[in-house]
Amino acid sequence: MGKIVITKEKELLLRKKIREHKQKSGPLMPSLHDAQEIFGCIPLEVQKIISEELKISVSKINGVVTFYSRFSLEPKGKHVIGVCLGTACYVKGSQAVLDEICNTLQIKVGETTKDELFSVEATRCVGACGLAPVFTIDGKVYGHATVQSAAKELRRIIDWETGTHEN
Amino acid sequence: MSTVKIWIDNQEMEVPSSYTILDAANDADIYIPRLCFLKDISETSACRLCVVEIEGLNTLKNSCTVKVWDGMKVHTHTKRVNDTVRNNLKLLAANHHFECWVCHREDNCELLELLRRYNVPNTMGENPTFSKKTHYRNISKSLTIDTSKCVLCGRCVSACNYYTGLGILDFNQRGFDTYVAPANNDFIDDAGCIYCGKCIQACPVGALSATSDEDLVIDYLNNDDYYVIAQIAPAVRAALGEEFGNPIGTNVEGKIYRALKKIGFDDITDVNFAADVTIMEEGTELIERIQAHLQGKEAHLPMFTSCSPGWIRYIERYYPEYLPNVSSTKSPQQIQGALIKHIYADMINVPKEKIKVVSFMPCIAKKDEADREEMKDEGVRDVDAVLTTRELARIIKRFGLNFNNLKDYKPESPLATYTGAGAIFGTTGGVMEAALRTVKVFLDKEDEHTIDFTEVRGKDAIKEADLVLNGKTYKIAVVHGAKNFPEMFRRIKENPNKYIFIEFMGCEGGCINGGGQPIVSSRDRETIDVCQLRAKALYTIDAENKIRRSHENPNVVSLYQNYLEKPGSHLAHKLLHTTYSKKEVFGKK
Amino acid sequence: MKTRQDLNKIREENLKQIKLLDDTKYRVVVGMASCGLAANADLTYDAIEKEIKERNLQNITLTSVGCIGECALEPIVEVYDKDNNRYTYCSVNERKAKEIVNKHLEQGEIIYRYLIDNYKLLIDEDGNKYEAPKYQYRIALKNCGIINPTKIDQYIGLDGYKALEKVLFEMTPEEVIDVVTKSGLRGRGGGGFPTGLKWKFTAANKGGQSFVICNADEGDPGAFMDRAVLEGDPHAVIEAMIICGYAISASQGYVYIRAEYPLAVERLQHAIKNAYEYGFLGENILGSNFNFDLEIRLGAGAFVCGEETALIASIEGERGMPRNKPPYPASSGLWGRPTVINNVETFANVAQIILKGADWFKSIGTEKAAGTKVFALGGKIKNTGLLEVPMGTTLREVIYDIGGGLPNNKRFKAVQTGGPSGGILTEAELDTPIDYDNLIAKGSMMGSGGMIVMDEDNCMVDIAKFYLEFTVEESCGKCTPCRDGNLRMLEILNKITAGKGTMQDLEDLRELALMIKDTSLCALGQSAPNPVLSTLDKFYDEYLEHVVNKRCPAGVCRDIAKLVITDHCIGCGKCLRNCPVNAISGHVKQRHIIDLNICVACGTCKPACPVNAIISV
Asked: Which residues in chain C are closer than 8 Å to A148, comparing Cβ atoms?
């Protein structure tokens, strides 16, 4: 797993945001959202910063971080692929799409590839049920997915990434 | 107080409207099982074992937090309730790692008691269809967390917050993956824990325990090369009896001495003696600081006591800027160890390398304290092993002793003599009171030399009192229970010159309620003031002692005459004083 | 800060624009909610804008709007003309967009072949108009797809914030609660608790701070009603929350919305900002002495936070673990203060009720369930989308008349309502009029509005497993029955779908399910066994097939499913091309075969077959 770097700049930004949230009741969740966005994850080092600012114990913060699936302790891959396993997508076969992507990348759901290029997630309903089944790559929604269309999109990114690596 | 009329199992009763169903059932002596409930501390209604049927409601309700209402009709033992409790117990059992025989809760496990009472077969646990949760272990010198035993009742999490305000233990992950540990199961020693052990006492099972050194001690005893010396802490004698069915607050000092002798300790000493020495050193230190202060020098007042290792861990982590205020005097356990290794060894003609000092303590932080880098001299540890009161009970049981039938015994070692002042070290206010008895004599020649300083006794979280020395009034304070420390510091910061001396103890009630003491069942905790009963035993020892001031202990007097010269001497400093340093929480990463 | 006179002026001007009462010739709207954007509606919008510009067309307004409701046919473009006609073009890509501008907007020529199927019924090629299907009735979705959600003026134009004015200046808090109570409005989030009563209980505890919370943590897989409202008409929710605040004397509101809805969050933020600028939020609202602040709080991916006490815990910065009830939030909610929590759709009804009265609202729907309900219709259905029908509409009407029935001539098997908390309804139950009590009586529940249609290719044991997997993953882990019991049920289901189940397993499954339902701490746990119980009740034969004959009739459960190609095969090769593991072989125009040693029974080939020649045995 890649280690995240806590630059002074990012740390200051987080502290500034937390101090804003502190003006209001219940500052922990908004602070965690900011931390996740700034650092891409909320490992103990980042939790310590929040703990100092909010005077909440690290263990409690970690309890909150690990409770919510949107917060992560480790950085995700460069490309995050999400396959919707909401009901509408599931009954239309999104599990097969997910399996195909996992197979291609040789990782399990929730994992990141060794080269840190891809993370695969089984997401909850993204609200695009009309396009079911859907998968997302870096936030962009791909509708009416099939095993083939997912494989094709994935291949495109892999090629592009390997292409740039060669450069 | 308004009351309502309710029926439990067709029994009509009138109860206060503030009551929960469980309160009402308790009053009526109707048994309702419970697991996650610790009155006032953990009321999360998570375990679903105290469920009852309420007429008119679709689902079962938990009785621990649901308040009564007028006309409520409750049924506690219908088939539906009974089946539910059994099924929930089956679920809990399926995920519990049973190794009861090595578990320190073998005799008082609340889960086991329920499984027995409801005759629950562990069919699910033995069926390979069903997976087991991931087990996490986290073992430090003082504390062992073993999540394979955990039933996720959350009592430890609540207790940690309730007693320390530190929130060291919390839930990690969610759903079936949930486990209780410090953040990400990071090493507990690094997580800011002060080892008060309140989590152990809150735990209904053996998921949390003192890290055991029983086998180590038995190895010492079985090794003829070693000369094994025991020392027992003040609070142990007020509580050990509970492990053998005696009422809370029974003083079993004589039986402990006898038991230790039978078990095979070569020599038996008492930490109360070291407590008297502590007063000599700490009292002198206080006097020096007051005098320095009067001369306008930097004196780091108020001075803080240093006996409670939980407190030391606390200040090193959370208020390190106040470390210069902490008395440099070691705690009685360490003083006794140092005296044994470096002075007593010569007296009894045993090479100090061959001596093993074993402490019996009401505290789990003492294990960590004995292990501190600072706690050795000339490469020799002051203390070699620390066992809790509970571990002592287990060892006594292991040797098959009939504890209650043991004849009282009094050890002969001079290090087993003590004054009333040494005895009360084990309760909140005790260190302060013992110090005041001596300091008064030393500093205030005109006073009639009060013995009882009752204003520092009792269970108020922060007790303040005036100390009059030569007509000048000083403020002293006593605080116990880590959750009250921030308030104490707030008062200090608000008025830095207000206090001259403050006693801090990590546990509410002091050592008598330490994390190594016998576990009182969650139900007894609701009705019995454990601290008060155990403290009473210590105050009785004090009151019945002919000598009640530390400096009047004849063996302490001769210790200084023959070896240490005077309190605060060069040798006293070398052996009996220590240093502290700032520690970062989650700093090892 | 606007005065009431300002508002009247805005109202008048915008109404004119929207209703084409000014010199506007056509009003063109593009559905640009999440699913529209996922289908590249932004490109469509740009293409129309560019084309209008290039052709220099005048008196045409182009507006981006929220969800129009026909999700499967995005991007959707609608053209309104002066005669109040509405033409719905579907699947409008850039090429079609240009054509619509060119033909319809410039030359006035309707392009019938691009119009949505449903609406072809409304206007045929000869220009005859027909009645719209009677079923849909929009209250909560009144403005969705009609106004631009980022333009507060357009909301105001369609009577927006009029209810707030009425409340602040003409009604006492008690009167507001009274109207809401009398209207019969019940919670649309699933519970169906009477909204007025909830407000009344909370108001009874006033004195000190109280709170209004909007639950927008829509987590049911397959449901997107709340997202559509927030993306399409955010002010409707804001207005209602202010009204609620007035009714219960609360001065602070929170919208707890899932972070997975970035567009809804963005639009809501924008709307709140506008509402502050106009003086609908903040101090002395519209010159009255009522103050109300509103903040957004983001969820973070925990389904259980849709449960109100868990949601409160989450706002407070805790793990989203439910708390025992009683005490209810009405007496002890956020930070221990009296709190009203209603969901998005519930709030979206409030302003209309205030404006049109309790009797009007009561006249819609059924006696026990007044008003309408929004459903997100999905799964094996032709017209996947969002719809709003009066309570009491039957499932059959929704699925066949509005939804258009099942695609590919597949046989209807079941419809699932209520998400992971709900149950399965069968063919025999399709004539059930939809309301809270009826659905519960049939072993399901209304839920928040997800409605998933399943056909013969869906295995009911697998579906039960799917929902249970969801619940197991989303269980907070606090109480024993939900944390441990649901996993144990799932493990039994895994055993059954692997062909290793026994009859004892079926008994154990039911016993566990009933116990979990009876004793779990919160509604999530209490309802988690519903999908299992309802499939056990209604598709017991299918369970038996799995257990006794080790066979999955729908061909879904991989360990036991066997897929074969019948002699209906026309040899088109579509299955072969779609098979991810190359298990299918065959020559063109000859019957293909599946090599069962290679086949992983993923089922990809089944829908690919144009003649339904692939079946499971």
From this structure: 577-578, 580
All structural domains of chain C with their residue ranges: 14-120, 152-361, 372-455, 460-548, 563-616
Question: Could you say which of B173, B174, B182 has the minimum Cβ distance to residue A59?
Answer: B182
Residue keyed to tokens 């007063």: B279
* Pick among A6, A32, A59, A64 to test the B interface (most B CBs inside 10 A): A59
Question: How many folded domains does chain B comprise?
Answer: 4
Calculate helix-pair angle for C540-548, C460-474, nearest 10 degrees.
Answer: 90
Residue contact C326–B87, C-beta within 8 A = no
> pLDDT at residue A165 above 50?
no
B42 three-state secondary structure: strand
Strand pairing of C86-89 and C77-81? antiparallel
Cβ partners under 8 Å of residue C303, min gap 6: A124, C219, C420, C470, C474, C524
Residue where a domain stops, chosen among B210, B241, B264: B210
Distance in angstroms (rounded) separating the CA atoms of residues B492 and C484? 49
Alpha carbon distance B44, B39 (integer Å): 10
Instruction: Classify each residue of B260-297 as buried b or exposed e, where b means 16 or more C-beta atoms within 10 Å of its C-beta.
Output: bbebebbbbbbbbbbbbbbbbbbbbbbbebbeebeeee
Decide if B199 is catalytic.
Answer: no
Q: What are the residues facing C194 on neighbouring strands?
A: C186
Instruction: Return the CATH class of domain C460-548.
Output: mainly alpha
Contact A26 C416 (CB under 8 A): no
Query: Is A121:C486 a contact under the CB 8 Å cutoff?
Result: no
Of A32, A64, A148, Cβ closest to residue C578? A148
Examine the residue annotation and report whether B212 is marked as an active-site residue of this protein: no
Distance CA B578, CA C321 (A): 46
**Which pair of structure tokens corresponds to residue C562?**
């066997």
Model confidence pLDDT, tens digit, residues C346-397 = 999 999 999 999 999 999 999 999 999 999 998 899 888 889 999 999 999 9
Closest CA to C575 of A85, A146, A84, A145: A146
Looking at chain B, which subunits does it touch, using at least 3 CB pairs closer than 8 Å as the criterion?
Answer: A, C
User: Cβ B92–C492 below 8 Å, yes or no?
Assistant: no
| Nearest CA distance, A106 vs chain C (angstrom) | 16
| Percentage of chain A modeled with pLDDT above 70 | 95
Q: Which residue has the higher pLDDT, C287 or B451?
A: C287
* Predicted structure pTM score: 0.94
- Note whether B321 and B457 are same-domain residues: yes
The reply to whether residue B170 touches residue A59, judged by beta carbons under 8 angstroms, is yes
Residue C531: asked if its preceding bond is cis (omega within 30°), the reply is no
Share of chain B above pLDDT 90, in %: 93
Q: Which chains does chain C touch, 3 or more C-beta pairs < 8 A?
A: A, B
Q: Where are the beta strands (DSSP E) in B161-283?
A: 170-172, 179-181, 208-210, 227-232, 267-270
Q: Which two tokens stand for residue B43?
A: 């009321």
What is the fold, at CATH topology level, of the domain defined by C372-455?
Ubiquitin-like (UB roll) (3.10.20)
Q: Assign C72 a pLDDT band (cuts: 50, 70, 90).
A: confident
Question: Does a structural domain hold residue B428?
Answer: yes
Instruction: Give domain C563-616's CATH number out of 3.90.640.10, 3.30.70.20, 3.40.50.2300, 3.90.1150.10.
Output: 3.30.70.20
C-alpha B34/C-alpha B28 separation (Å) is: 16
| Residue of B199, B307, B507, B531 marked catalytic | B307
Q: What is the DSSP string of B470-526?
A: TTEEEEEEEEESGGGHHHHHHHHHHSTTSEEEEEEESSTTSGGG-TTSPPPPHHHHH
Q: Are residues B340 and B377 in the same domain?
A: yes
Inter-helix orientation angle C262-278/C234-248, to 10° = 60
From residue C432, how far is each of B300, C396, C595 by CA, in Å?
A: 81, 8, 44
